[in-house]
Amino acid sequence: MSQHDYSIANAGGAAVRSDINSALGAIQSSNSGSSAPSATAAGMFWLDTSADPYVLKIRDKGNNHWLTIGNVSDPGSDARMSVGTVLQIVTNSSNTPVSNGSGTGSTPVWVTVISASITPQTGNKVLIMADWPVGSAVYYAFTRIIRGSTVLNTGTQTGSQHEGVYTTQPHAGDIVNPYSVSFVDAAHGGDGATAITYTGQMSAQTGGNTVYAGRSSSTSVNAGCAGINITLMEIAA
Predict the structure, then answer these.
(1) What was the pLDDT predicted at 30?
(2) Domain annotation for the chain: domains and CATH numbers
């Protein structure tokens, strides 16, 4: 372990020199130790050696918490930080049912069910996970995930077909069908400073039909809302 309180006490020359060398040793080793340093500051590194592999952490800007950067092991040669470390997680949930509104003819009406934003670094990946119940009386429902205006989790639209994922068959009354999706976005274009917004959308098979997220299609009974959720994770590439 190499840690220091970063306070150089008044003493004789040899003692001061030893104290300074101890402080420099702590800096050199990123304050390594099996427990957190007692004297902390915003932006301070700590190499947590309590388990194998070691974990490199940094103190947050408010000097309140440790943020994990990644695992530190011996790969046998120079290499990058461990791939797959989760760097940040953003979640959003809603208990408010959503319907796709109304449209005309064969033109689908896409509506936002839920969205969340994350600020990933260049080169990292974003894992998107979303889920909500879908209710429909007599019409097919379609769902999709978009980044900005870019559709992510579907194939290319052909002719009048939806650019979305078919999620449910018609069920009248209080029946709902679960929808869930996960998608890894490696081309988000993030730069570590710009927020990237991901949105879950829903549509019926044609513009004049109605489908619901977060409730059944019944108009006589509100079957309630079984949560509408989206989670974003930035993953080290």
Answers:
(1) 95
(2) 13-74 (no CATH), 88-235 (2.60.120.1340)
